[in-house]
Structures are given as C-alpha cells and as structure tokens.
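Supplementary Note 2. Why include the ligand at all?

Several targets in our set were suspected to adopt different conformations when bound, so apo predictions alone were not considered sufficient. For every target with a known small-molecule partner we therefore ran a joint prediction. The input for uracil is given below.
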Amino acid sequence: MARDSLRRLAAEFKQFLTAQGEDEWIAAAAPRRAAATVCTPSDTTTPQGDTLTVEFQQKKTTREMDSPAPMAKTMSTAQKTKALQTLAETIRNCSRCPLGSTRIQAVPGEGNVDTEVMFVGEGPGFDEDRQGRPFVGRAGQLLDKMIVAMGLTREKVFIANIAKCHPMIDPLHPEKHGNDRAPNAQEIACCRKYIEQQIAIICPKYVIALGGVAAKSLISDAKSLGALRGQFYDLHLDSVTLPKPVQIIATFHPAALLRNPGWKKDAWTDLQMVMDQLGLKGARK
Ligand code: URA
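The joint prediction is reproduced in token form.
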C-alpha cells in the first residue's frame, strides 16, 4: 500500500479513537463504513431454512477487497457457545479503556446463542456492575416485560450492551446510586469490536437497539433516535463479516420508558414490527 494511503488510514484511525463526542465519533467512523441501507419490512425476509453459514471471520482490508470474501462456514450451537465464552473471558480481562479499572464486574451479555432476536443496550448500570449480568435493574425488569409481551422470554433471546463496563459519573464512588452515565466516544470505540463479534457469532435475524447510544452506534448514523426508529436497516459491521444478513431496528431504552411512560405505545409499535416479521403473536392475555 502506498505510504500516503497508510498515513491517511493511520490518521483516520487515530481520529476515530480520539474523537470526543458521540456525533464526532460517528463522523470519524463514517468513511470506514458502508452506509446503512434503509429497508421496508417487506424487503427484509431472509431465506428460510438456509444453512446457517457462519464463520467468525475478520473483515478484509481494503487491499484484499478485490477478491471476493471466502464463503463463511456453518457454526454449530456448541461452537457459538464456545466462541462467546472465550469472548466473555476476554471482556472480563479487558482494560482497553479506563472503565476496566473502575468496574466491579464486566458485563459481557447473556442469552440464547441461537436466538433470532438480540437486544442491545448502552452499558451496565449499578445493578449490572454488581451482578455481572445485563439488564437486571429496574430498566431490566421493564425489558423482561417487553420481551414477554412479544411472546418471547429472556431465555429465548440474547441481551448485550454496547459498553461492557459500568460508566460512572463519579468513578471514585462506585457504591453511589444515581452514578450512571452513557459511555463516551472512546469507551464506545474501545468496546465496539466486542459487540460486533457477539452479533457475528450469534447472527440473529434481528437486532433491537435500545436507546440512542446503541441505535446511533450500530446503525452508524448520527440522527436522533426519533428519526432512526420505526424502520429496519441492514446491519453493517466494521470489523467482521456477517455470515448472513441481519436487520436492525431501534426503539426507546426501557429506562427512558420508565421516565416517559407515554412513549411505550411507540416502543410497542417498533417491537410489533419485529413480531410481524417473525410471526410472533405476542403474550396471551
Ligand atoms: N441499561 C443498559 O443500557 N444496559 C443495562 O444492562 C442496564 C441498563
């Protein structure tokens, strides 16, 4: 590769890692990503009954792009479980960003490795930091209800976060309540490969991004959550090749729904779009 191209790539990468604000981060990341394609629900059906072609494979460099990516191979449930366990171990030992030294426990994520639906939140809070499990506090209780309303259970889906460690306003006092904050740009960038690898291993049909942080980061669009929600997008990942198409839809974060119960109706509309695609009838009354 020409020296100039290398220099430009290095500069882009540095800009990406050092970007301060979420919007700045997304702008820095934009040149490296394919634009999210907007799909209507009727466009989104993936071939049924196809062999699940999954191989955990690094995305090709620009230089390698001219030859087609090798066909991915099937990954069994056992292989997915093993790959996710190995990844979780890496996450538990991670100190790529300062959250690694202030967390009580990392929260890799949990659930059914063969699920069709994966929920992605923004990052662990107080309760999750203590238990090492995602969405186990008040927001988690509401998420559980949303999942059941869809006709699913927590055991049937996979739940993870963009950031794997608890972002705190005051990291010197992890015992404090009300100490949660959204992950910042560097924290999101450092953690990004983990959520990408989890999605590529599980390869669900649908990712449901909970809240603006997850939506903007995975849809790679700086628009507001209000502008992003209500439609499906093709999911494109930076670091890995998805073995088959995955659709993503954004909706409100359960914590936002606890603060604004009036938004629940719109969130339910978003969830129903996924239910329609999967033929889910919802919980019986
Ligand atoms: N909020 C999140 O975004 N994730 C959790 O795991 C808990 C609360």
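Confidence is low (pLDDT under 50) at residues 9-57, 60-72. Strands lie at 38-39, 110-111, 117-121, 158-161, 206-210, 232-234, 247-251. Comparable summaries for the other entries are listed in the accompanying table.
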